[in-house]
Every structure is written in structure tokens, then in C-alpha cells.
Backbone:
């Protein structure tokens, strides 16, 4: 039986296992120094479209003894030319090899080799000797960004105790990481590591650090990239890393590069750049060499027993991309949620508010097939939508009366609301914001420059808001996890360096001169983005043009991702303001398609939100199945999250009957305005209109935030940072106490008895359920409530208990 | 050296001699096994985070099993002893030390033999740190010809001023102070020599040095033959400084292991040990009246100890000031006393500090007498040394200081006036060592590049320059 199965397996597996062609990288090998090496990567292409790494399954046969191949790496033997014949799966490829310079001395280079090893072994990382004060009296620059500091520290520092040119192996710099001598950082180096040889040879050759005239690395190429699929059981992939230098030469640095994994539960990587899948999922491998960083995104897939793709229909292109990814990763999407859940969800996400009771009831009984789309359309044109989404934007721009006093916070908030209300194209809105000048008491957008008075703050905030990039690390040194250099940072600052703010007062104006210099090289920097044609022109205009031009790598992607985050509580790139190649999007095709659609629509925010809300992906149930219960990044089910601070406060108002639906304010306002028109000088009428406009009773609708212990407890941001993370979503004891018997809850629950005094048991139950959950109570629930009310000594107390119980249910507290 | 080894061996025999059990050829724990364990095992199997919860820091702990519960030493049965088994295991995951070369065949054989012979302890205290019971190291010979120049960290003129001793690699080299000719080599000394002082009669040299992160010693060396007459003590890191008291009866040494120690010169007995600094001790100096020893440290302080007991008298904080004119935090690299008892200390901070221990203690008084302190405060004088790099070396002579460092320029200050008397021609590199001989009017500087410059202190001219690296040619 066993034999039979094996034979059968062999018979059937053989043809499928033979590649239709193979591909070898690189296509020619040049080894110009005794320690030059070349990593081969051999890829098999299969008839079914699969690709597979065959590097470890092929034979390498050199035609002459000038070169030797071990474990897929070519090592030089002597000067000369040859061919390496590579055979795999019945295919043969010949790769020409040229070996030279074997008898010439080629001293180990400090800047391109020693420092790379210090990074690879972790010596100069931020938590070790790369921290600003170093460790144990030994300080290195972070990831070797400053070779001068490192040269002095290693060679002269500590009275030259770290390197011993006379007995190189006895150097403290080797004995410490080898743990021959006690090392607080533990064992960091093995004698078998490629890095040991580099350090030893470098010290033996006199620990020279004078290679500053040698060409610098200008580009890093990682192969394969930028994406690769690893299909079980073929979960290994060798990488090749080639550095290009300023003089045009290239060098294989696979052994010197540092490899990091974004999702360690999905992928692993060896020091030699061999990637291996661990389980189904996605992750990025970041490859660092000196100050260069490139990432390769891996999708690791395997068959899952019992998994059958159920071919869900696509409502629009969003679902197409999500479904493709889910099918690829063998994740089964959840079913569509019921009407009540949808209604509550879409109201909360678009307006911050629960659906009004009457609307909920009407929606539940509506039998039209397009009723969900209709609700979405209604909400997108509502005043509540504009105010709620403007509030979320204002959270990131320091729109608070402390920073912008004398009504300017309200002025800017109102401007942001108008942007959403009138659906101002996003490119125009941002251009208006970034190029605003004049008296900030009159020009709302000019307050942006007063909210961030320090040039560096302005640069960092602009990059974080509209480029989704946290560049602040690059203020002091090149960014440790991304290709943002210190020069980039100050070039962004250079965009705003001519913005002049009056010391007192509110004028924002421009000067025609003023430059930003690099803090260490003192070089005058050109502003980031496209070069302006007129050196005297407002640099911000050129920058805004570059930023908002279709095809900009950041602008559309960042904003659609923020919109997605607003609807799902999780970005396609997450966190939303941390776009970097080492933090890849969960579904890249989806992000690309949304960005393209956003650009194509003329940066129409409501259009994109409408598409998102109408997708099946948005309308999925939170209930999981066996094949998606582990997924929390691919949107196979709707993510459950706590109501935000403001949503919670207004929801409690609705449920307890103490807050009228905000949608009713429009009629009131129209009436009040009409009355004011008759008597325009009437102070009371003016105040009435203002109150209706400012909506102070609604936490989700106010112009500027209310400050309260309740809101603070639930993570209301202070509006001091451009980071979306300023809004807290962690559970705290304070939250539990606020909900149990905090003043807001007690007060509103207490008054609910009066508000609901006239309702019958059945009316009360229905009213409460529709307000709190946007659904009708079940029979069991009705009965339970009815029994509770009947048994109670006094009805008002019983009502209060009931209301309290309702707002302390998870169904109420969570967005689902 | 031979005499020393013999006497120690005799002492061991007298106390523990039980020839019936151990044959003469059997390895002894202290001299043969412990050094190997310390250099190859103890850095991981040590302290609270010891690997596998197995500690090799004391002999008592060495016998206690780690998490594997396997007995480390089964007397007479090496194959059953985990300590031996893990050294020869074929599985690379089991073989110690992991990710590093195996112990040498000789070392493994010695451990096997020692266990086979009973695994006995020939020291005095089973709970003492093994590191502390190691005998002084035997040093290898220096390179016959230097392949490169080695930084010169120590220089000393002989009492007659004719010879100049320089620290080399595993040796001290003696040069003719006038001609710069190599006179002789004193070999088999620590890998790096950071401190050199002649005895009053010029017949011996006190040599301080060691191996970074591992070992330090102070040895008395015959200035002619190079024989190591006596080792005053061994340290856990390089000895960076040694000094004689003015009556030549006491020796003090400071090490990168953060201890300062006092020794009787006559018998080499350690009289006190002070672990008061939180970083390397870079310099030691006796006050002329013999009352105090000052220790300078990379921890940015100078401490004044009672010379007889090593107890703290006061701490000088003039290298870490929070207010002008000499604001900043600076490591201190050298300290000295002049004939009047003024302490002088150098390091970073662009000035030599001249101060008085007693007044320093007064100023350090308790908070209650703050007003009193303020009145006394500020007695420190600053002898300007206008460079941005640290000053590493300081020598005194004829009421003047001679100091140099990161800019390579030897500066001579008048201690009383505080003024710079002379700036000598720039050394070719950073200067780590300075020596001065007032009677012959010579000063010498030793640099990172291995060169030694001998200078005439009367004229400021160069006397001779040489690279203190025998056999080395550029």
C-alpha cells in the first residue's frame, strides 16, 4: 500500500514538479577581488504560473578551476575566465564568469565592510552602542551613519583597547561579542560568521579608517523583489543583495547585509539571506546595507484542509482585490451582516452617531433592495457626516483653542467642515491649506502655520499627514527603518523655511529669501518635491503641486488609507501614518486601486467613501468562521472595536433619551435663522442660531472638543500631535468606572426615567433597543424586560436599572 | 620570576600536600584548570543570568549542576562528568563553548586528567571567586620585529635621566634618552604596558599593564635583566597607573577594573583595596606628605583616599561643573601632586584643575553649612589648556606641569601663575604618555602612532625622535 502510494505520487508529481523553464540571477559573474563572492538565485517557472526557488536543488559546474560554487555562492580561485553550467529540472543555463585581481591586495574597507558588519551583528543598534550615549563607555553612530564618530570610538577610544593590531584575535572588539570576555550585550558573534572574518582581517591590516575617498554605496538591489509568493511546501527563498557604488562598480553584499522581518510568525531569515515561510500569511523582509534599505514583500501560502473558496460576489473592485487576497491566503470571508448591524455601523462610521429611532425602524421594515446604498448616500450629504469627519481631521492638526486662541480654532474647524460638506476635491483642500497666507484671524487655513510654529514641526506634521511618513527620526540621523535621510528631512523643512509668522498677532506672510542648511554638512538644501522654476516663488506652491499630482507615491494612498481606517478601525497600511517599505499594505492591490480611483475621480472623498461603504467587505458580519478566525488584518470579517470617546458620549445621550437626534437640528436651525432674519439684532435669537450651529451638546459634532473626564478616559486626543495614535483605544479601569457609575452615566441614566415615563413597557423596550442597538428586541428580550419592570417596586428605578444595563452591554459599547 | 613560582608551589605543597592522592604530573586546579575556565567559560556561566543556570564563578558553584541536573564533576569519572562531556560533545548544539573554537586538545586533556585524578581543589577558599585565585599570568615573548607601531601609553626617565623606558607589546623597551637608540628590551611582560615608574635607585621598574577586559598586574621588574621580581597583585582589567609614595615604602595602583589598591613595597602585600569609582581608574598619585592617594577616573571625578587605609577622604568634582566658566562633564585621565601638596588633574574640559584636598573636603561639606561652603567655594584654579580633545597625560617637574593629549601639543604651565610657559612642537599624533626629567632638562611624549619625542625643556628644541617599535620600519 505504501509502495503503491509512493509510486503513484512519483508518477503524478514528476511532471508537475518539472519547471517549464529556469532563470538564473545574475546572468554573469564578475569577481574582482580575492574576497568577492556572488550569490546565485535560481528560479524555476512552472506551467501553472508558479515560481519556485531552486537555488539549493541545482548543480553548478564550472568549466575551469577559476571559480568554485558552494551552497549557491561563487568564490574566486584564480584569475581567468570560465563558464558555470547550471542544471535543474532538465534545463541547462550557462553563466559566464570572469575572475580577476586575485593576487592584488585589497584591504578590508572600514566604511563599506566593517561598519556593515557592526550593523549586522547588532552592535550599533539603538538599544546598544548605537544609543546616543553608547553602552559601557563605547559609543557608535546609529547603524553607522557617521563613520568619523565610529572610527574614533573603535580605534582610539578607550585608550585603543578595542583593537589589537599585534594579536588581532585578542581584540576586545572580537572577544566581547564572542563572549570570551563578559559582555552585557551577550553573545553577538560566532567565529563561523562572515562578520568575524571581516573584523579580524580589518584589525589585522591595521584597523585603517582612512577609506573616505573610496566610492560610496549609491544603490541597493535586492533580488527577487519587490514581491514574492512562497507556496507550500516550497517555502524557502534565497535573496541576492547587490550594492552599486558611486564609481559604477557593483558588489554582492548578500553576506554583509542585515535582514529583518516584519512578521516573525510568518517568516524567518538567515544571516545569509535565506528566507523561509513559517505559516500562511504576509510579511516583509527588510534588507539593510549601510544607509540603504530595501524590502521584499512575501506572501506565504499553503493549502488548508477542508477549505473551499465560496466565490462571493463582488459589489465593486474593492471586493475583487480583497477576495483575491483572501482566496490566495485561504481565508474564507464572513457573511454579510444583517440590516440592523449595517445601519448602526454606517451611522457610527459616517456621522459618529447612532441612527435615530424613527430611521432605524423605517429602515428595518424597508424591503427595497437598494436601501443600504440609499442610506449611505443620505449620510454622505448630511451635516453630521461633514462635522464628524472634520473632527477626525482636526484631531491631527492641533485645532484646539489653547494653540489657536481667539476663535481661530473654531475658524479652522469650520473650514475643515466646509471642505467635507462641499466635498472640496482633496488636492485643492490640501493645496489651499499648505499655501495659505494672510491674517489667520480671517484666512482659516493660515492657522495651520500658527498651530505648528516651529519649522521642524511643520515639516514633520506635513510629512505625517499627507505623506504618511514619520520622518522625525531623520531630524538627527538617517531614518533607521526607512530610506528617509537627514537631507530629505531638511529639504521638507526648506519648503516652509520662508514662511514668516508675526511674533505677535496672526499674520502669516512669505519672504523671498531664506534657506535651510544641512545640520552637519552645512549644504544649502533645495526644497523637497519638484524644483521650482522661479527661485523667488512661493516654495510651498511647487511642493503642493508635486504632492497632489496624480501618481505621487504618497498623497492619494495615504488619504484613501485614512478613509479606510475611518471605516474599519484599521488601515490597509497600519498604522495609517507609518508608510514604509518595511511595513507593507495588507492588500497592496487594493490600496493601489483605491488610490487610482481617488485620483481618477478628481480626489472626490465622498466618492471613495461611498465605494467603500457599498463594498461587501465593509458590510461583512463580525462573526468569524473556521477559516478566518485568525485573521485580523485582511478584512475577511468586520473588525470589532470600542466606540470612540465622542461616539460613546453621544450614544449614551441617544440611548438615555437626553440627546435629540442631531439630524433634527437642521429644521430647528432653518426656523431660528428665519426668526433671526426678521429681527437681526435680537441677542437671544443670535445666540440661538449660534448654539444650533456650534452644536455644543454633541461630542461628535462640536467645533472644538469638549474637555471632560469621561472623554479623556475613553481616549479623546489632546490634539497635540499629528499622529492618529494620539487617540487611545486601550481599555482602562477608568473606563469601567465611568460606565459603572461615572457622573455622565449616572446623570443621564437618572434622567432617563423622566424621559421614558410616558412609554408603556413594550414601547419602552422597542424605543431602547432601536436607540441603543438599531434593532428590535427579540421575544425573549421583551419578556425579560417586561418581567423586570413588573417585579420592580418603583417603575422609575426599574427603568433606570434597565437603561443602565443596556448601555453596559457589549452590543452597545462596541462598534460591530 | 623563578623564585616566585617556586615559593608559591612550596606554599601549596605545605598546606595541601597529599602526595598519596595526586601524582606529580596531575594537573592542579588553580594553576592548570582555573585559567582555562576563566578565559573560555566564565563570561557566560556567571552571575544571575548564567547560561543553563550553571555558574563557574567559584569552585563551590562549579560543582553544582545547572538546569540539566547532570553532575558537572564526578571525581575519577570524566566521561560521566558534564563539565568534560560538554567540551567533547559531537553535537554542535551541545559542545561548549557554542559558536566558538573548542578548547585546545591540551586544555581538554588537562581537564580530563584533573577529573580522573579526583577533581580536587588546591586553593584555600572554595567560595572565593576563581578569577581572584588565579596565579599571575605567564606572558609570551614580544614580537621580535614589530609589524606595526604600537601606541606608547607609558614613558619613564631613569633617575639619572640617561635612559627612557617605554611601554611596548609584552615588554618594556629602554632607549638612550639623548640619542633615541634602543638599549635593551625587558620581555615577557603584560600585552599592554600603561604605567612605568623607576625605583629610587633605578635598579627596578614598577610596571602596570594587562589585557583589556581580562587581566591586569603590577610587577616589579629588574631594569637590567627584565626579570619579573615580584607581582604585587592581579586585577580584572588593565592597570592604568602606578605610583610610589615619597618615602618609597608604599605603592598604589589603579585599574580599569575600577579598583585602586595599596601595597607594601617591601613584601608586596596588599594593604587596602578601594572600589569607589564607577569607571576606570586612570591615574593615582601620592601627596608629598604621604597622607593621601588621589585617584582620577573616567567617571569624571577624582577621589582622595587616606594613603594608609584606602578610605575615602573627599571627592573632587571640578571636572563636572554645571556653571561657567568650565561647564561640562569630563572624564579625568591623570592626577599628580606638586611639592606644595597641590593636586593637579587633567582630562577633558580645556584646563588643568589645580586644587587642594582639604579645601575640597570643606567645600563638599553637608547642606546645613551651605553658606560656609559658598564662602570657601571656588578655590580650584584652572590652568587653561585650550583644546577640544581630552588631555591624557600629565607629568610634573620644577614647579611646572607638562601635559598633552588629543591635539598632540605638549604644554608646559607654571603651577603658581597658571600661565603657559611653553608650547612644544606638535607631536605627530595624539599623545598618551608624558615624562619629564628636570635635572637633565628633558621631557618626552609618546603618541598613538608609536613615536616618542624627546624635548629639551630649556630651549624647547627637539632632542631626538624615534618610533618605540623594535625592528619596525615604515
Residues:
Amino acid at each position: 500500500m505504501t509502495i503503491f502510494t509512493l509510486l503513484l505520487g512519483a508518477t503524478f508529481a514528476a511532471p508537475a514538479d518539472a519547471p517549464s523553464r529556469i532563470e538564473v540571477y545574475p546572468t554573469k559573474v564578475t569577481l574582482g577581488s580575492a574576497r568577492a563572492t556572488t550569490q546565485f538565485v535560481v528560479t524555476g517557472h512552472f506551467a501553472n504560473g508558479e515560481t519556485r526557488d531552486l537555488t539549493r536543488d541545482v548543480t553548478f559546474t564550472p568549466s575551469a578551476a577559476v571559480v568554485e560554487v558552494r551552497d549557491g555562492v561563487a568564490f574566486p580561485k584564480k584569475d581567468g575566465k570560465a563558464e558555470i553550467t547550471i542544471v535543474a529540472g532538465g534545463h541547462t543555463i550557462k553563466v559566464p564568469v570572469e575572475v580577476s585581481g586575485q593576487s592584488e591586495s585589497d584591504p578590508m574597507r572600514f566604511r563599506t565592510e566593517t561598519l556593515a558588519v557592526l550593523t549586522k551583528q547588532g552592535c550599533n543598534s539603538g538599544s546598544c552602542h548605537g544609543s546616543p550615549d553608547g553602552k559601557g563607555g563605547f559609543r557608535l553612530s546609529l547603524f553607522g551613519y557617521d563613520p568619523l564618530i565610529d572610527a574614533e570610538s573603535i580605534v582610539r577610544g578607550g585608550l585603543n583597547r578595542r583593537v589589537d593590531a599585534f594579536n588581532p584575535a585578542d581584540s576586545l572588539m572580537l572577544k566581547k561579542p564572542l563572549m570570551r570576555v563578559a559582555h552585557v550585550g551577550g553573545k553577538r558573534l560566532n567565529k563561523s560568521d562572515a562578520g568575524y572574518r571581516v573584523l579580524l582581517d580589518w584589525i589585522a591590516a591595521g584597523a585603517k579608517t582612512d577609506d573616505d575617498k573610496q566610492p560610496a554605496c549609491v544603490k541597493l538591489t535586492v533580488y527577487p523583489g519587490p514581491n514574492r509568493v512562497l507556496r507550500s511546501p516550497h517555502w524557502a527563498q534565497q535573496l541576492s543583495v547587490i550594492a552599486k557604488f558611486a564609481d559604477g562598480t557593483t558588489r554582492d553584499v548578500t553576506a554583509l547585509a542585515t535582514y529583518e522581518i516584519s512578521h516573525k510568525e510568518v517568516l524567518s531569515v538567515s544571516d545569509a539571506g535565506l528566507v523561509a515561510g513559517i505559516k500562511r500569511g504576509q510579511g516583509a523582509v527588510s534588507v539593510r546595507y549601510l544607509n540603504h534599505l530595501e524590502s521584499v514583500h512575501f506572501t506565504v501560502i499553503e493549502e488548508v484542509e477542508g477549505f473551499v473558496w465560496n466565490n462571493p460576489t463582488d459589489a465593486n473592485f474593492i471586493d475583487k482585490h480583497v477576495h483575491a487576497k483572501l482566496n490566495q491566503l485561504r481565508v474564507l470571508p464572513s457573511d454579510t451582516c444583517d440590516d440592523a448591524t449595517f445601519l448602526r455601523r454606517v451611522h457610527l462610521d459616517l456621522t459618529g452617531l447612532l441612527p435615530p429611532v424613527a430611521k432605524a425602524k423605517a429602515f428595518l421594515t424597508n424591503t427595497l433592495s437598494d436601501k443600504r446604498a440609499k442610506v449611505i448616500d443620505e449620510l454622505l450629504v448630511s451635516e453630521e457626516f461633514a462635522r464628524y469627519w472634520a473632527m477626525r481631521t482636526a484631531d491631527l492638526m492641533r485645532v484646539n483653542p489653547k494653540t489657536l486662541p481667539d476663535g481661530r480654532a473654531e475658524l479652522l474647524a469650520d473650514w475643515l467642515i466646509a471642505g467635507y460638506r462641499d466635498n472640496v476635491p482633496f488636492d485643492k483642500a490640501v493645496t489651499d491649506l499648505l499655501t495659505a497666507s494672510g491674517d489667520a484671524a480671517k484666512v482659516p487655513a493660515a492657522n495651520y502655520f500658527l498651530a505648528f510654529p516651529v519649522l521642524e514641526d511643520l515639516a514633520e506634521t506635513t510629512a505625517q499627514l499627507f505623506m504618511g511618513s514619520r520622518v522625525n527620526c531623520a531630524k538627527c540621523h538617517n531614518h533607521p527603518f526607512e530610506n528617509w535621510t537627514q537631507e530629505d528631512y531638511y529639504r521638507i523643512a526648506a519648503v516652509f523655511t520662508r514662511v514668516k509668522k508675526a511674533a505677535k498677532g496672526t499674520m502669516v506672510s512669505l519672504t523671498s529669501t531664506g534657506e535651510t542648511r544641512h545640520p552637519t554638512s552645512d549644504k544649502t538644501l533645495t526644497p523637497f518635491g519638484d524644483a521650482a522654476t522661479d527661485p523667488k516663488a512661493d516654495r510651498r506652491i511647487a511642493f503642493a503641486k508635486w504632492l497632489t499630482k496624480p501618481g505621487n507615491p504618497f498623497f492619494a494612498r495615504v488619504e484613501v488609507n485614512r478613509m479606510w481606517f475611518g471605516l474599519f478601525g484599521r488601515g490597509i497600511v497600519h498604522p495609517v501614518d507609518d508608510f514604509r517599505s518595511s511595513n507593507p499594505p495588507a492588500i497592496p492591490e487594493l490600496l493601489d486601486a483605491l488610490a487610482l480611483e481617488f485620483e481618477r475621480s478628481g480626489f472626490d472623498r465622498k466618492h471613495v467613501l461611498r465605494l467603500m461603504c457599498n463594498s461587501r467587505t465593509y458590510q461583512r458580519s463580525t462573526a468569524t468562521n473556521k477559516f478566518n478566525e485568525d485573521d485580523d488584518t485582511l478584512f475577511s470579517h468586520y473588525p470589532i472595536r470600542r466606540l470612540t470617546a465622542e461616539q460613546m458620549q453621544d450614544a449614551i445621550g441617544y440611548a438615555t433619551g437626553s440627546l435629540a437626534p442631531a439630524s433634527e437640528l437642521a429644521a430647528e436651525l432653518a426656523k431660528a435663522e428665519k426668526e433671526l432674519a426678521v429681527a437681526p439684532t435680537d441677542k437671544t435669537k443670535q445666540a440661538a442660531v449660534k448654539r444650533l450651529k456650534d452644536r455644543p451638546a454633541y461630542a461628535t459634532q462640536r467645533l472644538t472638543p469638549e474637555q471632560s473626564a469621561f472623554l479623556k478616559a475613553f481616549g479623546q486626543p489632546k490634539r497635540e500631535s499629528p499622529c492618529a495614535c494620539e487617540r487611545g483605544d486601550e481599555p482602562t479601569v477608568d473606563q469601567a468606572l465611568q460606565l459603572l457609575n461615572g457622573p455622565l452615566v449616572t446623570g443621564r441614566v437618572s434622567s432617563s426615567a423622566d424621559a421614558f415615563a410616558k412609554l408603556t413597557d413594550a414601547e419602552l423596550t422597542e424605543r431602547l433597543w432601536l436607540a441603543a442597538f438599531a434593532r428590535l428586541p427579540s421575544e425573549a428580550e421583551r419578556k425579560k424586560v417586561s418581567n423586570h419592570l413588573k417585579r420592580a417596586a418603583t417603575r422609575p428605578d426599574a427603568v433606570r436599572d434597565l437603561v443602565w444595563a443596556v448601555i453596559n452591554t457589549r452590543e452597545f459599547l462596541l462598534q460591530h | 620570576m623563578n623564585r616566585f613560582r617556586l615559593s608559591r608551589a612550596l606554599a601549596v605543597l605545605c598546606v595541601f600536600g597529599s602526595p598519596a592522592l595526586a601524582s606529580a604530573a596531575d594537573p592542579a586546579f588553580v594553576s592548570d584548570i582555573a585559567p582555562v575556565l576563566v578565559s573560555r567559560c566564565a563570561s557566560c556561566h556567571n552571575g544571575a543570568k548564567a547560561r543553563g543556570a550553571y555558574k563557574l564563578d567559584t569552585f563551590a558553584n562549579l560543582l553544582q549542576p545547572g538546569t540539566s541536573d547532570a553532575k558537572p564533576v564526578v571525581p575519577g569519572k570524566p566521561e560521566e562528568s558534564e563539565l568534560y562531556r560538554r567540551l567533547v560533545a559531537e553535537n554542535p548544539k551541545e559542545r561548549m563553548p557554542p559558536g566558538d573554537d573548542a578548547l585546545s586538545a591540551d586544555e581538554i586533556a588537562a581537564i580530563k586528567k584533573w577529573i580522573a585524578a579526583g577533581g580536587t581543589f588546591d586553593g584555600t577558599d572554595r567560595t572565593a571567586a576563581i578569577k581572584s585565585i588565579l596565579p599571575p599570568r605567564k606572558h609570551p615573548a614580544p614580537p621580535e620585529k614589530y609589524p606595526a607601531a604600537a601606541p606608547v601609553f607609558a614613558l619613564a626617565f631613569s633617575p639619572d635621566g640617561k635612559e627612557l623606558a617605554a611601554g611596548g607589546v609584552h615588554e618594556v623597551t629602554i632607549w638612550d634618552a639623548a640619542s633615541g637608540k634602543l638599549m635593551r628590551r625587558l620581555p615577557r611582560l603584560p600585552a599592554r604596558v600603561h604605567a612605568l615608574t623607576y625605583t629610587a635607585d633605578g635598579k627596578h621598574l614598577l610596571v602596570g599593564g594587562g589585557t583589556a577586559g581580562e587581566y591586569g598586574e603590577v610587577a616589579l621588574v629588574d631594569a637590567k635583566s627584565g626579570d619579573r621580581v615580584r607581582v604585587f597583585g592581579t586585577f580584572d582589567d588593565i592597570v592604568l597607573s602606578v605610583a610610589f609614595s615619597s618615602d618609597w615604602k608604599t605603592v598604589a595602583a589603579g585599574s580599569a577594573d575600577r579598583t585602586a589598591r595599596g601595597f607594601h613595597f617591601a613584601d608586596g602585600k596588599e594593604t587596602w583595596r578601594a572600589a569607589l569609582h564607577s569607571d576606570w581608574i586612570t591615574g593615582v598619585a601620592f601627596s608629598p606628605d604621604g597622607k593621601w592617594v588621589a585617584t582620577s577616573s573616567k567617571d569624571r571625578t577624582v577621589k582622595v583616599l587616606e594613603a594608609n587605609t584606602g578610605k575615602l577622604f573627599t571627592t573632587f568634582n571640578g571636572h563636572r561643573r554645571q556653571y561657567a566658566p568650565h561647564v561640562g562633564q569630563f572624564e579625568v585621565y591623570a592626577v599628580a601632586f606638586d611639592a606644595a601638596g597641590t593636586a593637579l588633574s587633567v582630562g577633558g574640559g580645556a584646563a588643568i584643575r589645580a586644587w587642594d584636598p582639604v579645601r575640597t573636603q570643606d567645600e563638599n561639606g553637608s547642606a546645613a553649612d551651605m553658606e560656609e561652603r559658598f564662602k570657601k567655594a571656588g578655590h580650584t584654579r584652572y590652568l587653561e589648556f585650550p583644546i577640544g580633545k581630552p588631555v591624557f597625560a600629565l607629568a610634573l617637574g620644577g614647579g611646572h606641569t607638562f601635559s598633552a593629549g588629543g591635539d598632540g601639543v605638549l604644554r608646559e604651565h607654571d603651577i603658581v601663575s597658571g600661565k603657559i610657559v611653553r608650547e612644544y612642537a606638535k607631536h605627530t599624533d595624539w599623545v598618551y604618555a608624558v615624562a619629564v626629567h628636570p635635572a637633565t632638562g628633558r621631557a618626552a611624549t609618546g603618541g598613538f602612532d608609536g613615536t616618542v619625542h624627546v624635548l629639551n625643556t630649556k630651549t624647547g628644541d627637539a632632542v631626538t625622535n624615534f618610533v618605540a617599535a623594535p625592528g619596525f620600519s615604515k
Remarks:
- DSSP finds eight helices and 29 strands in chain B.
